[in-house]
Every structure is written in structure tokens, then in C-alpha cells.
Design goal:
The complex is a heterodimer. In chain A, the strands form 3 sheets. A 6-stranded mixed sheet of chain A has the order 7-8-9-3-10-11, sandwiched between helices. In chain A, strands 2-1-4-5-6 form a 5-stranded antiparallel sheet, with helices on one face. In chain A, helix 2 runs parallel beside helix 4. Chain A has 2 domains: 220 residues, Rossmann fold (3-Layer(aba) Sandwich); 50 residues, Beta Barrel (OB fold (Dihydrolipoamide Acetyltransferase, E2P)). Chain A is of the alpha/beta class. Helices cover 25% and strands 33% of the residues of chain A. Chain B is mainly α. Chain B contains 12 helices and no strands. Chain B is globular. Classes of the chains: A alpha/beta, B mainly alpha. Chains A and B meet through strand 7 of A and helix 6 of B.
Chain lengths: 290, 224
């Protein structure tokens, strides 16, 4: 269990932001921080990691205080046993893939670097330097490196944001398998609702430095009144009015889907909105594609 | 009969100065990049001063400060047994300060260009600042280090004003090549002056060329 109650005020030219986060994360869960940019998601990760010092508050990890302003406790980042995958991956350019993993690996480690390289399908690339790898490969190295540390908590800062759709799916698979096999608490920052629904048990919606809602992905993004068999999340790309109905173009993953909508349904929906398309009863066509 | 002493002395001075500078500049550059202290602008200014100040000004104040007739100079003489005026030790100290920006600036720029996430990644992996410096920061600023070393070395070789003011012109002790050249010209020994000059010209050209080749990656291409 991770209990956190942290305050931090940032002074910026735009007026500043006050973070006040209060939440509990069960051990072994996969948590996503979701919210608009500048809401304080990355800062939250950095405070948990010990890279950013909160002004006041308390952070307990399995009953061990990592930060407690009233008792002047601030466990150094080096002592926190955290795996952190940075947005830019932060792979060391002077080391090969294998050396990157070995650098973070504790001496009494139970994890074998070779097994880890195989698990992440990096065996072929072990002696390459990071700058010669593709984005997806670098991402896997960054993940493998974080795992080599045998962390208690894995922190992921929009790890898949820079990748194309195909790689995303593959890496989401990896993430899911790793989280299941290695069994630690994972906290991820993400904007991708599909990704969040697939991976996480708990979503914390953060707005202006506060947790405004929390729940399972279904509770947060789903509409519980629809018991749909098919559900997709997408973004509105176009709205055309035809007599009394609307034709809405929605980008779902990498496909543009046209949906017919009633004027009553279209109330409050604008271009660029995130929407959910669901269908209760219809007859899908199924055919083999290979 | 050519006297090789001044050339030998020049390269000895440059070598010692560069070594001392490397040891001094690493922590200083690290501090200049990472510190948030209020006196940082003042220190940064002092480090850069030798770039704009005439060497004679620097030499003049060294001469005053280190003179045994002066409180500071006599204190050093009495307690440490070192006489800094008209001695090799004094030359080294003056050269270190005179060439400081040439070593500090490249290293500082190199360290500042290392993404902060690399350092943070290293800390997250449980590594201390010291380990991070040796294993992550320095290996990633090799070109800056090389540039600093070579510029400091070459700049010390080319020194004249400071050396003349504080070292004088003592053969075998403080008479470096640049001063010897001036001396020989004054004595109308153009042949000797030409020899010293040519040697300095060729050696500094070769050193700088090597750096540009290495930093430009030409040598790697050639070997592969």
C-alpha cells in the first residue's frame, strides 16, 4: 500500500499551480494518472521517486515513511528502490544495451540480465549503443533497465507517447505481461484511454493539482448505462449535419469511423472531444484476414 | 649550438599546467553547472576574466602579491618554503589562472548539455553523485574534455605577458620559448628565433589538427 498526502506549490509566470494530492494505492496494482497537461501528473511521479521535494505532507510505502515533513524525513532518491521510465527514456549513450541494464542491477540481484534481455526480445541488440536503436527498441531497453533494478514501484512517464500505433500495442502487451509476472506496483502517466483501459486497475483523474475522481477505467471512462458488447474510444474529427441527423467522423485508434447520431446525442459534443462509441445489438461480419 | 632548454621548459610548463587545470576545473565546472548559489555569477566572472584582461595586468598583480616584500608573499615563503616570483612554481600558478577559462568553459558547456534525465536516471538506480559523474557525465563529455585539455595546453604554450611579468627570463628556470624568441630577436639572432618559432608553429598546428580530426570523427572513419 502506498499512502500519499503531498503538497507542493509551483511558481510559474502563468500564476502557478498548487498540488495537493491525497490518495492510496494498493500494493501490486496498476495505476494510471490521467488529466490535462500541466495538471501535475509528472510532478506527482517525481515526488514519489524523490526527484522533487514536496513542500509538506507524507508519503508512506508499505508503512515505511519515504517522506514526512513533520518528522523531517526525506528518503534519498538512491534509497527508494524505484524503477523510472523517463519520457525521453534517458538511456546512457556511452553504454551498450547490456551495460545500461547492468548499471542499474544490484550486485545481489536475483534477476539474470540474460533472461531479462530475452524476455524483452533484446538479445540481438545487447551489444548495440542506444542511439542506433529505433524508438520502440529504446523503449524496451528503458523498461528492461528499470526492471533490472528489481524496483518496489515502477513509474512510467508517458512511456508510449512517442511511438506509432503498432508499436504501442506491442509494448502495451509487454507492460501487461511484465506487471503480471514481476508483481510490483506500477504508476503510469498516460493520455491514451485505450491504453489505460487495457492496462490499469485504477485511474486517478488529476486536474489542477488535485485528484478529482478515481475508479476503474470503466467507471471513469465508461457509461455504465450502456451494456455494450462493442465499445471504442475515439476522437471527434468531423461533424456534418444532414437534415435531421448528424454524421460524425470519429478517429478510433488509426481508423476513421462514421457514425450516425441524433441531435439529442450531439448536445455538448464538439470537434476534438474524446467520445465513446458503443453498440448493443448488431450483427458483426466476421472473416479471416490472412 | 641550439639551446633546446626553452622549448623543453615550455612543454613542461604546459603539461603541468594542463594537469593541474584538469584537477581544478572538473569540480569547478560541476559546481558552476549545478550550484544555485548567489555568488555563482561572481565566480563565473572571475573565471572568465583572463579572457579579456591583458596578461600584463594579471602578471603585474601576481608580481605584487607574491613578492617576498609583501605580506602574502613572505607568508608563503616562510610557511610553505615556496617562492613564487621568478620560479617555475610561480609560472605554473599564474598559467593555471591565466588558462582557467579555456579548460572550464568547454567542460562546463559539456556538463550542461548532458540531459538532466540521465543524471536523474542514475540517481534513481541508486548511484551517488560521484559515481554518476564518473560513469555517466564524464564519459558523455569526452569531446569537451579533449577540447578543454588541448586549448589549455596550447594557450599555455602561447603565453607571453604573464610569464614575462612573474617569471622573468631566467635560463632553465623561467625562460620559456615565447620569451626566448623575443630575446633572440632583440639580440638579432634571427636563425634561433626562427627555429623556436617554427617548432612551436608545427607542434601547435599538429595538436589542434589532431583535435579537430578526433572531434570531427574523421579518424574513426579512416580506421573503419
Amino acid at each position: 500500500m502506498i499512502c500519499l498526502d503531498l503538497h507542493k506549490t509551483f511558481k510559474t509566470t502563468g500564476g502557478g499551480l498548487t498540488l495537493h494530492l491525497q490518495t492510496e494505492v494498493p500494493k501490486g496494482s496498476f495505476v494510471t494518472l490521467y488529466g490535462p497537461s500541466g495538471a501535475g501528473k509528472t510532478s506527482t511521479l517525481r515526488m514519489i521517486a524523490g526527484l522533487l521535494k514536496p513542500d509538506e505532507g507524507i508519503l508512506l510505502v508499505e508503512d515505511v515513511p519515504w517522506f514526512d515533513s513533520s518528522r523531517k524525513i526525506n528518503l534519498r532518491v538512491q534509497k527508494r528502490q524505484i524503477g523510472y521510465v523517463f519520457q525521453d527514456y534517458a538511456l546512457f549513450p556511452n553504454m551498450t544495451v547490456r551495460e545500461n541494464l547492468e548499471y542499474g542491477c544490484p550486485e545481489d540481484s536475483e534477476i539474470s540480465i540474460d533472461e531479462l534481455l530475452e524476455f524483452m526480445e533484446l538479445g540481438q541488440l545487447a551489444s548495440r549503443k542506444p542511439q542506433t536503436l529505433s524508438g520502440g527498441q529504446q523503449q524496451r531497453v528503458a523498461l528492461a533497465r528499470a526492471l533490472a533494478q528489481q524496483p518496489k514501484i515502477l513509474l512510467l512517464d508517458e512511456p508510449l507517447a512517442a511511438l506509432d500505433y503498432k508499436f504501442r500495442l506491442k509494448l502495451q502487451d509487454y507492460l501487461f505481461r511484465i506487471h503480471r509476472d514481476f508483481n510490483f506496483t506500477t504508476i503510469m502517466v498516460s493520455h491514451d484511454i485505450g491504453e489505460i483501459s487495457r492496462l490499469s486497475d485504477l485511474v486517478l483523474v488529476i486536474e489542477e493539482g488535485r485528484v478529482v475522481r478515481q475508479g476503474t477505467p470503466d467507471e471513469i471512462f465508461g457509461n455504465r448505462q450502456i451494456s455494450g458488447k462493442f465499445r471504442f474510444v475515439g476522437e471527434v474529427q468531423g461533424i456534418e449535419k444532414h437534415d435531421i441527423i448528424y454524421i460524425v467522423s470519429v478517429l478510433v485508434q488509426n481508423q476513421l469511423i462514421k457514425v450516425v447520431a441524433q441531435p439529442s446525442e450531439m448536445r455538448g459534443i464538439n470537434m476534438g472531444d474524446k467520445v465513446m462509441i458503443a453498440s448493443k445489438a448488431f450483427n458483426p461480419i466476421i472473416y479471416k484476414i490472412d | 649550438m641550439t639551446d633546446w632548454q626553452p622549448l623543453f621548459l615550455t612543454f613542461k610548463l604546459a603539461l603541468v599546467t594542463t594537469l593541474v587545470l584538469l584537477i581544478v576545473s572538473l569540480p569547478l565546472s560541476w559546481w558552476l553547472v549545478h550550484s544555485r548559489s548567489k555568488i555563482k555569477p561572481i565566480i563565473a566572472t572571475l573565471v572568465s576574466m583572463p579572457l579579456v584582461l591583458p596578461p600584463t595586468v594579471l602578471g603585474f598583480y601576481f608580481l605584487l602579491a607574491f613578492s617576498p616584500g609583501n605580506a602574502f608573499g613572505s607568508w608563503i615563503d616562510r610557511w610553505l618554503g615556496i617562492q613564487l616570483v621568478f620560479s617555475f612554481g610561480g609560472l605554473v600558478l599564474a598559467s593555471v589562472i591565466y588558462s582557467l577559462p579555456f579548460m572550464v568553459h568547454p567542460i562546463q558547456a559539456g556538463l550542461a548539455a548532458v540531459p538532466s534525465s540521465l543524471n536523474e536516471a542514475s540517481y534513481v538506480m541508486g548511484k551517488s553523485r560521484w559515481t554518476t559523474l564518473w560513469r555517466v557525465q564524464l564519459p558523455n563529455i569526452k569531446t569537451s574534455l579533449l577540447t578543454g585539455i588541448v586549448l589549455a595546453f596550447a594557450h599555455t604554450v602561447g603565453e607571453f605577458g604573464v610569464v614575462l611579468m612573474i617569471g622573468g627570463n631566467i635560463p632553465g628556470k623561467t625562460k620559456v620559448a615565447s620569451i626566448a624568441i623575443y630575446d633572440e630577436v632583440e639580440a638579432l639572432n634571427y636563425a634561433s628565433a626562427n627555429l623556436y618559432s617554427a617548432v612551436l608553429f608545427v607542434i601547435t598546428f599538429a595538436i589542434l589538427l589532431l583535435v579537430y580530426l578526433i572531434n570531427g570523427g574523421y579518424l574513426k572513419r579512416f580506421w573503419k
